[in-house]
Amino acid sequence: MTDQFVHRTTGEAIVDGLLAHGVDTVFGIPGVQTYALYDALARVGDRIRVLGARHEQGAAYMAFGYAQATGRPGVFTVVPGPGVLNAGAAMLSAYGASAPLVCLTSEIPTAYMGRGLGHLHEMPDQLATLRTFTKWAANIEHPAHAAALVADAFHHATTGRPRPVALAAPWDVLGRSAPCPPCAPRPADATPLDGALVARATEMLASAVNPMIMVGSGARGAVAEVRALAAALQAPVVSFRGGRGIVSDREAHGFTLAEGFERWRRSDVVVGIGTRMELAWFRWPGRPEGQRTILIDIDPAQLVRLAPAVGIVGDAAAVTGAIVGELGSAQAKPMASRADELGEIKRRAQADVATLQPHADYLRAIRDVLPDDGFFVEEVSQIGFASYFAFPIYEPRTFVTCGHQGTLGFGFPTALGVKAACPDRAVVSIAGDGGFLFGVQELATAVQERLGVVTIVFDNGAYGNVMNDQRRLFDGRVIGSELRNPDFVALARAFGAHGEQASNPDELRRALDGALTRDEPSVIAVPMPLDAASSPWRFLMPQLSRDDR
């Protein structure tokens, strides 16, 4: 035993590991199985801020918001069994959205594990369950193992494709003391650059006539390289959700999905960078004959699933930068500017989007007030879907999404985590009336912790997308989708938050401006008509015109 070993409880060893990894915030709800962890957090004082939630799902979504806003791991703690399952939706959201989360939980006492005796919060096999929606999960069996396992947890959460991980310590182990080594963060694994594949990709792009770039959340660490590639190719950069803002929507090369579809049929080479390319394989019809795909991704599985002509496993910045470096010598001559051509495509698409009413006008009102670096947290709702293409985004990470999981109710608690991570920046959360009530209890957290998120609730008295589908698909029969709602303004005030109503885009613009100035928890209720004719789905699942078929 060396002098490096210090007597620690498992809880204290875990907290030492959090500090070693630069963690400054933990979200959660204490319970009897995690008392030793919370006591260890109390002992480090304000070195780690502990934000208490009112529901385990809320705590996990706050950690998710923290991770989405910063790129750093969001850390939360819940009790085992029901607490883990309550947090499961957020972990599944993070898994789909490639966000690094670290779940710290407990287990029933070691002597009772696997015996099925019905101990408090017992799950038949918690570790096996966690492994179905995390990248990595483990149990700590002794205090001396805690430091290494914390380092493993953060390594798996942040390297390769970022995703949630979970670490559990049984009730009796969490408070046990023993000599423990210090926690040393593990270095990231290096991915070698395949020069031959870079050369093949460069050759393909040098001869492309109408290239297109698609970006997802995996490209957020390659902003400069993506912009340089777009300039070299004079190609539009299309983003769906996670990649929004990598190229600003103000720029000629920055395309929303609505604008990208206008160019899709003419694109001969498509470069996907850190993206599942959902638009190409699922949403956009009429893939042009002979179109070739280059895919750059840190996750080798993506190359198997999408079968590109050239697939390169590696860091988005390193691979894209290498291609940009080789393009200069590979191209016969620099591409002439296509800013006017691309700008005209954008103007046509934006004129079409502007006909989506009243969604487009409400989203424009929010954009007029929200600073460029302010965060916009979407939600599973008609206006949330419209925001994918009708809300301009100017900086990376400022469009916060749950990705393909489409988890109803994620938005408001996620926005609280965004605000906790970035207290000096504006955060606006939009929600439908149904989704907001999934996490409305976290208004108490917002008030208690002084998290000045502005939530705009668009109230149509229904699960709107469901009701429209029922009316369209089942001869107008509606069941289970009508909602009787509270007075959202009075509800906000009852929690101690600011509440007001806005009945049109101009009123929303003024109300939002005032709320952001006050920087206090606020709810703005907006009565919203439910009109199937104004559905955003014609942009999300477009059809070919007769001329294109």
Q: What's the short version?
A:
The protein has 549 residues and is of the alpha/beta class. The chain has 23 helices and 20 strands. The protein has three domains: 175 residues, Thiamin diphosphate (ThDP)-binding fold, Pyr/PP domains (Rossmann fold, 3-Layer(aba) Sandwich), CATH 3.40.50; 154 residues, TPP-binding domain (Rossmann fold); 185 residues, Thiamin diphosphate (ThDP)-binding fold, Pyr/PP domains (Rossmann fold).
Overall description:
The protein has 549 residues and is α/β, with parallel strands linked by helices. The chain folds into three domains: 6-180, Rossmann fold; 195-348, TPP-binding domain (Rossmann fold, 3-Layer(aba) Sandwich); 354-538, 3-Layer(aba) Sandwich (Rossmann fold), CATH 3.40.50.970. It is built from 23 helices and 20 strands. The protein has a six-stranded parallel sheet with strand order 3-2-4-5-7-6, with helices on both faces. Strands 11-10-9-12-13-14 form a six-stranded parallel sheet, with helices on both faces. Helix 4 links the parallel strand 4 (74-77) and strand 5 (101-107). It is globular. The termini are far apart. The mean pLDDT is 95.
Major sheet strand order: 3-2-4-5-7-6
Strand percentage, roughly?
15-25%
Shape: globular
Number of helices: 23
Name the CATH architecture of the largest domain: 3-Layer(aba) Sandwich
Total count of domains: 3
Low-confidence stretches: none
Distance between the termini: 74 Å
- In CATH terms, what is the fold-level topology of the largest domain? Rossmann fold
Mean pLDDT value: 95
Radius of gyration: 24 Å
Secondary structure category: alpha/beta
Number of E strands? 20
- Give the helix level as a range of percent: 40-55%
Largest sheet descriptor = 6 strands, parallel
Find the CATH superfamily of the largest domain.
Answer: Thiamin diphosphate (ThDP)-binding fold, Pyr/PP domains
CATH class of the largest domain: Alpha Beta
